[in-house]
Design goal:
338 residues; alpha/beta; Rossmann fold; 2 domains; six-stranded parallel β-sheet; 13 helices; 12 strands; 40% helix; 13% strand
């Protein structure tokens, strides 16, 4: 049976630079025989269809069955899990209702972690037997070549990611100030908004954390926001950083841990179930709401070379558990059995 995979980046160039593009790169490597398409109307009814970005907040691709077999990938349900921080509005609530109906036509759901599987079962009421956990791996383009163009003077720590509430940017900023160390922030949203002029009369609840972060870092030389970081430049930043910071209040996976681990760069992670699942014992864990504890962990890695090297080696070893071959094998099993 032929396999078709929905690819929004064909029509949306901006998506190529985001996590959407990264995950599709991985799928192309894992499933080279598949056909990638931006139009579900082109998918034959006797084919298998993989929707790699089933997002309950966005309008569904279809409210009827598209293909003989259908598999949805739900990466996380952070926005549904924390409704006060991510208020949906009427359109969002309608989309959630419509997507619950659309889910009935999917034979199997793939997600990135056991933590997300539990959330999907609890929030969307999906039978756990219909949910397969397939850990993602790294894109093959990361680490091929390295550039020092964006690397600041050492020592520095690194944050790679988005700027939503769950990313905990305010506590990261306060910890960086307390530790008195430079921090490089890589992320399109942060880059676009860090120098934005805010209307403080009304700030959407979803942007309160980002607004406070921008106030924390304004005109402070400790905070570095390089524009348009390429894979080569990101490789250089990971290779030369004291550590990677991933202090999210919650996540569906945690790509920056895996990316840093690939270069034997240790991570300071939030003491949350998702990160214990992904990293096991190969990172430093701290209370993400205690910026003093985060600062202490940063200083500890700056001053203790042996600990930094030890955690880097452990992280590198752990990263081998997230291989392309393993992902490819598990995807094929799921596709055949759905």
């Amino acid at each position: 049976m032929s396999l078709y995979i929905y690819d929004p980046t064909v029509a949306d160039e901006l998506s190529r630079a985001r996590g959407v593009g990264r995950y599709l790169q991985i799928l192309r490597a894992a499933l080279p025989e598949a056909t990638f398409t931006a139009s579900v109307k082109q998918i034959p009814t006797n084919a298998a269809f993989l929707n790699p970005f089933f997002d309950p907040i966005k309008p569904p691709l279809s409210l009827t069955r598209i293909a003989k077999r259908q598999i949805a990938v739900i990466h996380d349900l952070i926005r549904l899990k924390y409704p006060h921080q991510f208020p949906l509005g009427l359109k969002g609530k309608l989309n959630v209702w419509l997507n619950r109906q659309a889910l009935r036509y999917y034979d199997q759901i793939i997600t990135d972690s056991e933590t997300s599987k539990a959330d999907i079962h609890k929030i969307l009421k999906v039978d756990t037997r219909k949910i397969s956990v397939i850990y993602p791996c790294l894109s093959s383009t990361l680490g091929e070549t390295s550039s020092l163009a964006k690397v600041p003077p050492k020592p520095y720590v690194l944050y790679v990611g988005d700027a939503t509430w769950n990313k905990n940017l305010v506590n990261i900023a306060r910890a960086v100030k307390l530790a008195e160390i430079r921090c490089v922030f890589v992320g399109k949203t942060i880059e676009r908004t860090v120098n934005k002029e805010w209307d403080s009369q009304y700030i959407h609840p979803e942007q309160q954390e980002l607004y406070q972060f921008c106030r924390e870092v304004k005109d402070d030389p400790l905070f570095i926001f390089p524009p348009s970081v390429s894979d080569e430049e990101l490789t250089g930043l990971y290779q030369n950083a004291v550590c990677n910071l991933l202090l999210s209040r919650d996540e569906g996976f945690g790509f920056s841990f895996l990316e840093a681990a690939h270069f034997s760069t240790p991570s300071i992670l939030a003491d949350r179930p998702i990160f214990h699942e992904i990293a096991q014992d190969s990172a430093l864990f701290v209370n993400p709401e205690d910026f003093g504890a985060i600062a202490q962990a940063i200083v500890k890695l700056v001053e203790n070379n042996r600990l930094r090297e030890e955690l880097g080696k452990k992280a590198r070893a752990r990263s081998h558990d997230f291989s392309l071959d393993k992902m490819k094998k598990e995807l094929k099993i799921t596709l055949e059995n759905s």
